[in-house]
Amino acid sequence: MADDKAVFAHFHRIEPGVRPQGTGGQLDEALEARIADPLFLLARQWQLAEFHGEDGGSPVGCSVSTAAAAVDRFRPGDTGPAVAYPPGVPLDYLVEAGRDPDPADRELPLRAAARAGLRFLGLLGALPAGVRDSVTDQALTKFPLVDAPAEEEPDAGAPADPAGQALAQALLARAPHGGRLARALATGWHPTGLGTADLNAFKQAATAWRAWFAAEHTPPTRSSWVRDRLEHHFAVEAAHGSGRITLTAPEYPGGGAESYHFDIDAEATAPTDPHPATRTLLPTRAAYPGMPAERWWEFEDTTVNLPSVDAGPTDLARLLVVEFANVYGNNHWVVPLDLEVGQVHAVTDLTVVDTFGDRLDLDAAGDEHWSLFRLGTAGTGLPGPAVLPVLPRAAARLEGAAVEEVLFVRDEMANLAWAVERTVQSATGRPRSRADETPAAAPPAPSDVPEALMYQLETAVPYHWIPLVPVPLKPGSAAIRFRRGKMTLPTADGTLQTRARGRLLEPEVPRVYFRDEEIPRSGVTAGRIPATARGHDGRHYSWTGRRARAGQGEGASGLAFDGVLAAKETTG
Asked: Is the entire prediction scored with pTM above 0.70?
């Protein structure tokens, strides 16, 4: 068409032109990194004391000799005899799975007891059908899963465990109680009316079942849990030569024992060996995230920014860490050393060879007042011998939700402390909340006088709040401790006493005390947590351990006495 116009696109490209004179076409000038003020760099080197030569070389090799003492004894608690340490058993399992004798099987949930009883009945397959039915009936009658309901006190009734009651009704006629059955078989019990062949078959089945029950449900040692301290106390011992090393854990909260949980006894000495194991190793420089670069122009990792650490004049520990990282971070070396598990090790000789060929014999750093990586002496806190305990630990430890949890809080307005049972273990083995157990409070009685004030003796508290009453630590002492108490709550159906239901507060013990210093204003949360793990030998371990951790601050129960309530307005 005549109106069409031709459109042309123009493109321009800019290309660098290399100068032929000077260093054109070369990178020499750029790589020289010329600076305008070289004196500035010399001044910076002078400020950092880089001109002060120390005539020191870097380590290129070292020879290490070690001695060890095998751990052979374990003592749960503060007192009592020590028992032999089973080789290879994780220390976490020994400490947290230990229990004191429990004739009432309070630590064995009803589901586990029924499962054990059903396993026993399943092992009776060698008996004839009629004899097997007779043995089953006798076991169900003599070892019932639950006792007949007893008539409770008028004010001691507790809301039922619906899931536990349903499980008990379903299994009552099917399985005997495994814990009671195990105790009876240990005393020689056997059913009546069995012939010689049937009795032998029953004893074989009972022996096999008892071995299984002991492996699954018998605790390895007695309990190391100290109730009034809300922590574990235990000790391990190792023998070397004519002496012994005792390592005591005075404040182990649970969750995994580390070397820093231990104190060493004052009489202990480092193990020695007339023929120590000597190894020649290659040192490597110690490194950590955010470590300052060694070279002046090297770019550093931005993951950790040490100059941005906020520390005040009183934050000495934080200031020391920053100074160590910036000034002495590249002055430390690491020597990898493989050590046997289950022993207390000590370095008897350490010889380092530097780049000049000089051989230097090194001792442990520190003196009687200061040291690094040493255990404190029990009772004094002073540095002990230079030893390193390498104890068996649970590998790949897995934990479930807490089956019981108690929150210890202070209530300054009520001048009390409280043990709040958040959850307790149901008969099914699972946790159940106690917050749903609080009954309906009784309303104040109406007055016949119009607009009259009403008197309230005390306010109600939740049913699962167990009072801890302060009492003297000793007669005539100003120091206090807390005693577990009870409260009588008015309900719509009468009165009801608050009572502990879990294992941590031990309701079967008449008097339970807790130390005043163990319940700070921040509170303490104690719980029973199921755990499973494998040992270094591949064996499987399962247990429910007790653990304490920091709380959530103070609590307010709202408890008040001698209150006056305003009369409710009436409408005509």
From this structure: yes
